[in-house]
Amino acid sequence: MRYDSPLRYPGGKASLATFLARTIATNDLLGCQYFEPFAGGAGAALGLLRRRVVSELRLNDLDYRIVAFWQAVLTEPAEFVDRIHSVPLTIQEWRNQEQVYSKAATAKDFDLGFAVFYLNRCNRSGLLRGAGPIGGHAQSGRWALARMFHRRCISVGS
C-alpha cells in the first residue's frame, strides 16, 4: 500500500484527495497552490501534490507540535532520516519521546517534531495524546514498537 503522508492520522483527510482533485479540475484550477490550514498528516494535500493536481502546498496547523514535525521534515530531512535509522525502539525511548512531547514548550523544535513522528508511529492508532504504546508497556502484544515503526517507514512512498 502507498501512503502519501509519513504520519498515521486517524480520521485524516487523505480520502478526500479524489474529491478535491475533481473539484480543482472542475473549477479550472489545475496547478494552483493548495493551502491546508489544518494539516495534521496532510494526506489529502500530499495526494494532490503527488498527482500534480496542485503545484505547491502551504501547510499549517493549530497544534504547534504538528508544525514542528513538518518543519523538521522539510528543513532538515537528512537529519530526520538519520534519527529514524538510529533511534532505539524501546519502551524507555518511548518514555523519553513522550517526555519531549509533553514538555513541548521547552523542547527544541527538531526534537519536538521527531517526538511527534515517533509517538505517531509507536502509539495505538497513531494518537499522540492519551494512547499507550503499541504492544503495551510490557511489549507482549502482537504488534510491538519496532514492528509497527519499521512497517510504516518501509511503506511510505513505496
Folded structure, characterized:
The chain has helices at 17-26, 43-50, 64-75, 77-86, 91-102, 109-122, 145-155, and strands at residues 32-36, 54-59. The N and C termini lie close together (8 Å). The protein is built from seven helices and two strands. The longest helix has 14 residues, at 109-122. The chain is mainly alpha-helical and 158 residues long. Residues 154-158 have low confidence and may be disordered. The protein has two domains: 1-62, no CATH class; 64-158, no CATH class.
Strand content is 5-15%
Approximately how much helix is present in the residues?
40-55%
Distance between the termini: 8 Å
Helix-strand pattern: HEHEHHHHH
Our count of helices gives: 7
**What is the typical, i.e. mean, pLDDT?**
88
Strand order in the largest sheet? 1-2
What is the number of strand segments?
A: 2
Summing up helix and strand content along with how strands pair, one would put the structural category as: mainly alpha
* Overall domain count: 2
Low-confidence stretches: 154-158
Radius of gyration, taken over Cα atoms and rounded to an integer in Å? 16 Å
Major β-sheet profile = 2 strands, parallel
Shape: elongated
